Amino acid sequence: xxxxxxxxxxxxxxxxDNSIINCAYSNSASDYFIWYKQESGKGxxxxxxxxxxxxxxxxxxxxxxLNKTVKHLSLQIAATQPGDSAVYFCAEGxxxxxxxxxxxxxxxxxx
Amino acid sequence: NAGVMxxxxxxxxxxxxxxxxRCSPMKGHSHVYWYRQLPEEGLKxxxxxxxxxxxxxxxxxxxxxxxxxxxxxxxxxxxQQVVRGDSAAYFCASxxxxxxxxxxxxxxxxxxx
Lengths: 111, 113
What we know:
In chain A, strands 2, 4, 5, 9, 10 and 11 form a six-stranded mixed beta sheet that branches. Chain A has a five-stranded antiparallel beta sheet with strand order 1-3-8-7-6, with no helix packed on it. The termini of chain A are far apart. Chain A has strands spanning about 5, 10-15, 20-25, 30-40, 45-50, 55-60, 60-65, 70-75, 85-95, 100, 105-110. With about 110 residues, chain A is mainly β. By secondary structure, chain B is mainly beta. Chain B is about 0% helix and about 50% strand. Chain B has strands at about 5, 10-15, 20-25, 30-35, 45-50, 55, 65-70, 75-80, 90-95, 105, 110. In chain B, a hairpin with a 5-residue loop joins β4 and β5 (about 45-50). The chains are: A mainly beta (about 110), B mainly beta (about 110). The interface of A and B includes residues 46, 94, 95, 96 and 102 of A.
């Protein structure tokens, strides 16, 4: 069964606001986490990753937070733009297993 | 620097026919993964291959599905005697290693009539 899940299946935000997408995982052995963005009709696109020895990692307009105590992962998108509209997946992995993906959250940006 | 290339992008088959999906990984990548995605759902792992070896096929149905990654040429996902439930998007990804980022292709969308 799935070991990765998301709290919110859909999220609507106003353009310019910050977005927070959450993800729960259950495999405490997972040591590598990735957020992917998937636009309609396209393949998943890497956004940002984080390893279990870190709590936070920042990219361009995106931040990933990892809370290993409660097995929670979040993706924060600053100043959300219409081009951010997509489905976002978190994925977890270990050194020996392929990535396991969650069901995804659809982000809709309201202009 | 070509990314992961998948073909065909769209494939229509009638029930009972065979479907062959091809994937060329990124240059220098020797790890290939196949995932299946149903509409409005996440990606389900099917199989993980390295050159000439199947490393993990725990997500692959036991019957009708097979995968290979020969020494030369693309990885092939083969579905024999397709049924309507096989209709889905099939994504291939490649990586440098098992704990490295997966780079995905644009997918092959199979429709079974």
